[in-house]
Amino acid sequence: MKDDSNQKLWCLELIDHIFSFSIMVYSYKGTALGSLFGLSTNFQEEYQHFEGSKGLINILWNQNSEPVDIEKDGIPLRLLPNQITTSTYLQKIHFNQKELPLIGFTFNREFYCIQDHDHEVSCNGIIFFGTQAPPIITLNEEEASKFNMLLEVFIEEFTTRDNIQGEMLVMLLKRLIIKITRLAKEQLIPTELKDSQIDIVRKYNVLVDTHYKTKKQVSDYADLLFKSPKTLSNLFAKYNQKSPLQIIHERIILEAKRLLIYTEKTSKEIAYELGFEEVGTFHKMFKKITNQTPQNFKSELKPN
User: What predicted TM-score, i.e. pTM, was given to this entire model?
Assistant: First the structure.
């Protein structure tokens, strides 16, 4: 990594907060490219430390003996003991409880994603874009022990200050992602699917996230993947996924919900931002997906 090979080009921040529940936050920053990698032993309390950076990807691990409830884009998600989930820069996370700490690995595209542009263990990989439902990976006792040992190696490396620290952290992060990806393929993906078929599904999801504002037909993505729309529909049905068209529509409406929640834009402004020439077409799609109009959705957000 040219960004981190010269000591003058990077700085290391090590913040070790000791509270009654022993929170530790480690962060590595490469100044040349603006790369960031962080590790927190209480992500709910300390993720604000990383929020100033854009394009963050997270790996969250519940090491507790009890479940932890969170929300991704308003969808409730319960992490059982020794379960792992991920979130990307496209998602909003809300924590319903903070008394049970989550282990959080946080990084931006500049730190890791430039290493592998389009691979199953890249930032566009299976555990980030391979499924429409939030991925949840379960560790058995043996796997949890191995992950605990890897966590100790991460902490040791964060406290080692030298010129190759950035490269070592990238290698460790890739090892973590590979281990989670292998488990995800075992637990979340039908065994009869070939790797090439899994990759098509993954690439489709990545393409939709990239082009949903301008490409709204399955045929648009079929052309990009050199497949027919029928081939994609058959593959997604075999993969127990939503239909390719439903994935496009739900991605559009997810962004519409975010804009309704976090901005003061009108539904007309949102429709145009999402690439609709007619506001009525946007309203029709929104109601089909949510069973309510954008105005009703917005009004329900307001406190009584």
Answer: 0.74
